[in-house]
Amino acid sequence: MNTLILAAEETAEGGASTLQLILPATAELAYGAIAFVIVLILVSRFAMPRLNTLLDERAAAIQGQMEAAEQARAAAAAEKAEFDEKLAADRAEGNRVIEEAKQTAEQLRRDIVAKAEAEAEAIKARAQAEADAERERLVGELRAEVGRLSVALASKIVGKELDASAHEGLVDEYITQLSRNN
Fold first, then answer.
1. What Å distances lie between residue 118 and 99, 106, 107, 128, 131, CA to CA?
2. Residue numbers in the chain where pLDDT is lower than 50
3. 131 part of a folded domain
4. Please, how many CA atoms are within 13 Å of residue 81, restricted to the half-sphere of its CB?
5. Which residues form the domain of 110?
6. Is 6 among the domain residues?
């Protein structure tokens, strides 16, 4: 840096201005300006259209990708909505099936309980009927036995043979009368 300052001081002492040191010669400046204009014209004629075409193509590609992305997003949203609807329908169907199964199980339980109660009642009725029949049979046997015993006792007391059928009628009548009193 010191050398620049020293060079500038030497030139200033020699009579040249500092501006002349910085600016190029006039001919060189004119050729440089003409060359710049020619390059600018060539670039604007040949390079810029191609560059603009590339930029337009890139913009169109980006726009197409954005539209495709938007369409994909919309399609994904539609598929998600459809999936959610199907999921909700499947859940509702599952709940309906579970509810039907519960109702069927409850109905089956009620049927089994009713059938068991009916069978219990039938068994109870059969047992009662068998007990009644057995009691009637036993009462009949007891009447017959009491009749035979009373005929045997009466024939021993009286000392002669009584008519069994007449005596049996008397015994039956007496037993019936006793059972009414009790």
1. 28, 18, 16, 15, 19
2. none
3. yes
4. 6
5. 15-181
6. no
